[in-house]
Amino acid sequence: MTSRIRALPKDVANQIAAGEVIERPASIVKELLENSLDANASHLSIDIEEEGCFLIRVQDDGMGIHRDDLPLAILQHATSKISALSDLAKLSTMGFRGEALASIAAVSLFTLKSRCEGEPHGWQILSSPKNQEAVSVTPVAHPFGTTVEVRELFFNTPVRRKFLRSAKTEGMHIEKWVKRLALVFFKTNFKFTSMHKRTWFLPKAHSFSEQKRRVEIILGHSFLEQAFYLEKEAVGLKLRGWLAPNLKSADDSLYQSLFVNERWVKDKIVTHAIRQALSELCPLGSPLAYLLFLDCDPSACDVNVHPTKCEVRWEEPRHMHDFVWHSVREGAVSRSQSAFYEEQAMEPPPKLYASQPAALQKEKEKNSAHPLGHPLALFHNRYMLVENSEGLAILTLSKALQWLAREVLQKERALGVHASPLLMPLPISLNSPLPWTPTQESLLASFGFDMPCTGPSAFIVRKIPTALRYVDMILFVPGLLRAVCKNPAFNWNDLFEQIDDSTLFSLAHLPETKETMEELLAKLENHAEPPFRYPWIRQFTFSDLES
Q1: 386 in Cβ contact with 373 (< 8 Å)
Q2: pTM of the entire structure?
């Protein structure tokens, strides 16, 4: 016969709650850091001893906890982050369950110190499982912010300690969680100390270059070297970050980091969309590393699925899958059109006589090596301002790229077109089927295209002429295919007519840095002839500027 139903003693209930929230010392570090980040901390200091079993200390410079709220902080279901059931549908904070501190205090010797701005000193409470409800608040010297100390973890539940792994393993899990949060909260300093020795320090990273530097420190140089960056937006959705297919060191879970509204999660829908979008480049079973930040309306996902808050449930999973798939796919295709471009060899500039004065020789070397000039700025993503020996010149980039493509193809016409494979094959779908034949496919191959037909109105682009690197293939290929089908005698002049539409030259691959602008000028100089009177350049002499 079963026993009668009865309420569990308070200490047993607390132990059960602690078992749900606290898997290992790293779970405590995660919960404490999330509370500090919710308090708008700009500096976080994490100290551990004996890999968290003896001591975990997290100190922040956040807004602090009011004196009267300190006893409530370690009570179950007490929180400042939600007040009504409707708040669960629009969560914008990292923590919210109101169980973390209560559960931690139930299995450790717990100290909480805090000081709010404007208070003359701080306040502290000391709690243990035996006096968790009868704590006293005492004054203490403390800077603005909050410090939580967790000592002797699982001292009252030795059976839990037996299930912990080695000190090295537990320490690795703690450090991994600190690094995960450092990968998304760039405007916060992170200092990590183990056994009184500072292991590492990460300063704030405001600019994009500083953020890349932090990512490089945490994930390594090889990750950024092999990864491509993407940034896509849709209505209510934004995805940005890095993906590195086939990264050999991608076995660590730190290299599969997805943050939804700054919260690290594991999500099968998003992971499947990434894998599917990169299926040709990264087959099933091969390593895939990514660091992605997905921002959406808090009401579009439910994060109250698991006690550790590491899973989400989407309101519209199909819509989310499609958005991620298209974003990753477009990012990979965009990368592929530029990754395999081989720069044409440039002839070395002519040597000058050493007997010339140093300043004059230097100026002549400069003008001889770069007759078109030196780039000053790129504006409106359409024009490049260039300084040269005659004055200032403005280059219309779309026309310059169009002219360059024609010139390169004209020279390669007799010797054979140089083709480059796309990093990611590009599928093309037409509105209506075409009467496609192997002869037409061979014709395009002679121009440098590898575009097999995969269906009545479907093609896949595998190779393109290197000269057409800047052409938007999504816009260019459909018109090219229709022109080939319409004209059985399609020839080079017909191909040039297709290229003459300057709107096809994608702005996504235009030069942005000084180095890439100089590379483009070098390519133009390699095919153009002085005095550079071409439709794509407008020269202003010094007299023009003075007038």
Answers
A1: yes
A2: 0.61
